[in-house]
Amino acid sequence: MSTFEQLKTEAQRIADVKYAAAVLNWDMEINMPANGVEARSRQLATLSGIAFEMGTSEKFSNLLQAAKDDASLDALQKRNVELLWSDFQKAKKFSQEFVEEMSMTVSQTFAAWEHAKKANDFSLYAPQLEKMIALKRKQAEIIGYEKHPYDALLDDYEPGMTAAVLDEYFNTVRSGLKPLLEKIKAQPQVDNSCLHQHFDRQQQWDYSIAILKQMGYDFGAGRQDISTHPFTTNFAATDVRVTTRINENDMTDCLFSAIHEGGHALYEQGLLTGNYGLPLGEAASLSVHESQSRLWENNVGRALPFWKYNFEIAQKTFPAQFSAISQHTLYKAINRVEPSFIRTQADELTYHFHIMIRFDIEKALMEGTLNVTDLKNYWNEQYQKYLGITPADDATGILQDVHWSHGLLGYFPTYSLGSAYAAQYYRQAEQDIPGLNDLIAKGDNAPLLTWLREKIHVHGRFYNSQDLCEKVTGEKLNFNHFLKYAEDKYSGIYGF
Ligand SMILES: [Zn+2]
Q1: Residues 111-117: contacts with CB within 8 Å, 24+ apart?
Q2: What pLDDT, on the 0 to 100 scale, is given for residue 189?
Q3: Is residue 131 part of a domain?
Q4: Same-domain status, 347 and 464
Q5: Which protein residues have a CB closer than 5 Å to ligand 1 (ion)?
Q6: How far away, in angstroms, is 5 Cα from ligand 1 center?
Q7: Cα of 100 from ligand 1 centre, angstroms
Q8: In a domain, 149, yes or no
């Protein structure tokens, strides 16, 4: 067996353990009874400990070294080895105790968050969150950083990204979006009452399944379930699962959660199976991941061509609710812009402010300039400052997101970046695929999916997000493409 084949075999064995843990995680959120949390936390900690042991072992180190020294590798193998090597160098910085402590803390913090959210009481969550933040600060010190402890965490999700670059990015977002939001605010508000009627649970579920199929999501390699917070998880490109949630008084929650997670899942299903367990079989970064979900959710799912095809289907599915309205009424309703409390339900413009607030908070938590005990007040003040609204309770405010309970700090900014990438990629797809919007208007999403597969999915981690964007669109991330898209779209909807 060649040096690369030997390395690949071991990397895949490590991946087997990690994905087995991912299955347990999925089960924890979908099926597990409440009393199972303690045993499950233990099982997850053990598995992540085993994966860590294997991934930092002398055996793996020797296999890596041999492959690194092998001059006969082709370009793809070489890139796999490079990325495995840098992952290995990073992993080696952590002790096994730290990894197991993190896994255990994640399980406990998630349980505390769920409990507190149900009870609508942040104080039930705060002590556990405090432990998590302390551990994340410890993690940043272990990884090391040049300027800001937050940079160390960002690197996990968005290689090369820094707090300083994000400060600048969010300045552009703020100054670009503010005038647009002012123009929208000056116009009469769009009527979205058609969305806020009673919608049957089963009908909503069936509709979301049909839309996933239309997008090209392969149910032979996936399934959809219900969870508190919609997510996508994968155990191989041939087993990629999504979740959604159903709100009987707003059909957009289930529909757009399904489209969004479906976009994530199409990316994972599009990774090359031959690269299972290797970096080139993994997504490039979280912002690239989010570019895929946002592209399907916003640039496709909230645009006119999609509804030219789907309006009739929606009318047939929900005749009592939609038979008396026009296609344009529904299109405008699903694109209503209005400051709101819940990030996942926010329109695509004010959404960026939800992210900016979380970015500021995370940065301050990592600096130690903000304490968990002050978090709720700070959160409410920021919402008042940027969106002009104050959450009435904890569940619709500080407790709404699952991320911090999973230890995912540095993750939120990738949502905003993903939205910007999505606009830039969609613009490129329009140029590359003749009549793209006409095809979508006929319900034919296959050419777009093929384009995404060829341009983005098949590369795995070969390129980082910035280089991939430049390769596909000819330039680095440029927020002006999002602004142009937003200007064109919302001037039509709000009539300015
Ligand atoms: Zn997403």
Answers
A1: 111/37, 111/41, 112/405, 113/399, 113/402, 113/404, 113/405, 114/228, 114/405, 116/394, 116/399, 117/228, 117/394, 117/395, 117/399, 117/400
A2: 97
A3: no
A4: yes
A5: 293
A6: 34
A7: 27
A8: no
Task: Give me ligand 1 centre to Cα 228, in Å.
Answer: 15
The tens digit of pLDDT for each residue in 94-140 reads 998 898 899 889 989 999 999 999 999 999 999 999 999 999 999 99
Distance 412 CA to ligand 1 centre (A): 10
For the entire predicted model, the pTM comes to 0.92
Q: What is the pLDDT of residues 144-179, one digit of tens each?
A: 999 999 999 999 999 989 999 999 999 999 999 989
Asked whether residue 87 falls in the same domain as residue 168, the answer is: no
Nearest-5° Cα angle at 153, 148 to 159: 100
Q: How many domains does the chain have?
A: 2
Q: What is the CA radius of gyration of the chain?
A: 23
- Is 110 among the domain residues? no
Q: What residues are annotated to the active site? A: 261
Boundaries of domain holding 18: 3-92
Domain co-membership, 333 together with 437: yes
Tell how far the Cα of 401 is from the centroid of ligand 1, in angstroms. 12
437 plus 295 within the same structural domain: yes
Same domain for 367 and 488? yes
